[in-house]
């Protein structure tokens, strides 16, 4: 029987081919992007063969990869979407993602990662860390273009300390039952946040907790003022202490109860200044082009 070296398949508008003995399926999607599917292949590390060098979407989900080395992706610089969920990743060397200058989506959900990977590229738009015991977030500062961050079910003990992230618009911290507090200052550093999911944070503003009513109202007021849609927050608790008596820290008639703290306003101002700083070159270039085009048009007329 003649051995077929390459099998060409047309499936749902995708052209795909596999080479003899290969475990990964190389294909091109309807937009002609190079896609490589290596899921469910029991890999212990990122394979050095079977993957096209110009791969743009690499799926390594549901394997047994435990460590990402500095040279794991050096031969695949065009990767835009990298899926590594449901592996056993616990160590990511500092330069493992450094060669991925075009990376936009990184899914590391359901691994054993305790800190945000170092060297996240500036191109990164979406980061999924769901189901990891993440403790350290400071490496997020390098991902200056990050817009979507998922930390669902990470056993967080508190709302994450993110630092100034003006590009972040979508944050998911749902299914973290031990998050107990949230205040406008924490939201202010993500000054362009539009969507926040705290569903399942059952200890957040727990009734009977001193000051819970007013702290909750301040968050609600902030969300209303800055147009943040908050999922899973629910109604603010009654301003009563655990024994049914009025909580001195929760007087709803006090003007300060729902007032935005000065610290939050200062953080918001700093965050917006950083956003403008990051985007000024872009807008300056666009404005310059518009002016030049307008002047050329006037000269022609």
UniProtKB/TrEMBL annotation:
The keyword Repeat applies. Keywords: Leucine-rich repeat, Repeat, Signal. Gene3D superfamilies: Ribonuclease Inhibitor. Pfam families: LRR_8 (PF13855). It comes from the Eukaryota. Residues 1-21 form the signal peptide. The keyword Repeat applies. This is Uncharacterized protein. The lineage of its organism: Eukaryota, Metazoa, Ecdysozoa, Arthropoda, Hexapoda.
